[in-house]
Design brief:
Blueprint lengths: L2 E7 L5 E8 L6 E10 L3 E6 L4 E5 L14 E6 L9 E6 L3 E6 L4 E5 L14 E6 L1 H5 L4 E6 L3 E6 L4 E5 L14 E6 L6 E6 L3 E6 L4 E5 L14 E6 L3
Antiparallel strand pairs: 1-2, 2-3, 3-4, 4-5, 5-6, 7-8, 8-9, 9-10, 11-12, 12-13, 13-14, 15-16, 16-17, 17-18
Length: 236
Amino acid sequence: DLRCSIVAVDKKGSVVKLLEHEDNNPLTQKHSVRALSHGKNHTVGLTRSGRVYTWGQNDFGQLGLGHHDDVEVPSRIGGSLNGKKIRSADCGDFHTIVLTEDGDLYSFGSGERGQHGQPGRKHQLAPKLVGPFVQASVKVLSVSCGSNFTVCSTSRGEVWTWGNGSSGQLGHGSAAISWQPKKISNLCNIVGVAAGRGHAGAFDRDGKLYMWGLNSLGQLGLRDCVSRKTPCLVSS
């Protein structure tokens, strides 16, 4: 099965399309890229048709291609993502999270600090469904990866986090690792989230912003440089 993928760059340095060619197919299909995310040394690209391509470093399986080999050319992820339309994808340093249009999360890559949300520390080489949301009958609306943790919002207005919590970036009031997704107890009506390397934030339906985690440089917007282990309203 011979495949060749090409990433195109315009004059401004933007990725504008991916081309895929399969053997026995004389036609070349063009796929416009609508989103990119970068990990420490890997990239994930999402096309308008809902396909996911990855390339770069792959020591921990963060490309989701079923192996550990680095990849220099954008390669489409298959496996459990076949037949699914992808809404968004985001990278941590060494892990990747993919959100489907159906509201399901799939993860792959490093699990050394629980950042992929799968049981145990074992690296995940191919996309695997993050189970707790299915078990709780919860649909995910948005997801964002920090350096080695993950945060998401759900259709119920909840925020769930997992992975490294050394700077309070999980928002659970401690610095412990969370090996499985865990809901932040004091947030509700949330519609969006975002993660930095060691801090995170969420905003609700009324536009109120909450921040937590590392704050050594004032990145929480709380008028000081004190880290927080639980979400705090940004009053300004």
